[in-house]
């Protein structure tokens, strides 16, 4: 039996007939203008991707910042409430888990679940870690850094998620 092997570039050449976002992390979010008519944005300019770029920023992508004084994780969890989120620290990792039961949305019924795991820098003070959820659904996990040579503690513990009434001050990159 002969099986034809298709290269990924072949599928991309078919353009608007095969939306690129069908089986990626945005599954269940609905289709966007770029998915249906990608050639329109390229007729304006081959570098124009504003709708796709905006979609990526609003899609649950996380941002990790680690500067000299502080370690911060920003994660878009707009579909989850604080009760749906669990944040745990285990040794040198922070684990963020979100799960909500089936809910009705514009397209039918949906249930969501995600699990993210980040390595903490060795000089983060694990006893001073905090986690908050802003009104616009941005989860902010942060902890101060301690001077080198000071042990920040490495026990397993849960970090409570507090709710803020104001929108996040995280940059939209």
From TrEMBL:
Residues 144-173 are annotated as: Disordered. InterPro entries: A-crystallin/Hsp20_dom, Alpha-crystallin/HSP_16, Alpha-crystallin/sHSP_animal, Alpha-crystallin_N, HSP20-like_chaperone. Keywords: Acetylation, Chaperone, Cytoplasm, Eye lens protein, Glycoprotein, Metal-binding, Methylation, Nucleus, Phosphoprotein, Zinc. Zn(2+) 3 binds at residue 154. The keyword Phosphoprotein applies. GO terms for biological process: lens development in camera-type eye; negative regulation of apoptotic process; protein refolding; response to heat. Zn(2+) 1 binds at residues 100, 102. Its main location: cytoplasm. Residues 153-167 have a biased composition (Basic and acidic residues). GO terms for molecular function: metal ion binding; structural constituent of eye lens; unfolded protein binding. It is found in: Cytoplasm; Nucleus. The keyword ATP-binding does not apply. GO terms for cellular component: cytoplasm; nucleus. Zn(2+) 2 binds at residue 107. It holds the Pfam family HSP20. Contributes to the transparency and refractive index of the lens. Acts as a chaperone, preventing aggregation of various proteins under a wide range of stress conditions. Required for the correct formation of lens intermediate filaments as part of a complex composed of BFSP1, BFSP2 and CRYAA. May contribute to the transparency and refractive index of the lens. Has chaperone-like activity, preventing aggregation of various proteins under a wide range of stress conditions. Belongs to the small heat shock protein (HSP20) family. This is Alpha-crystallin A chain.
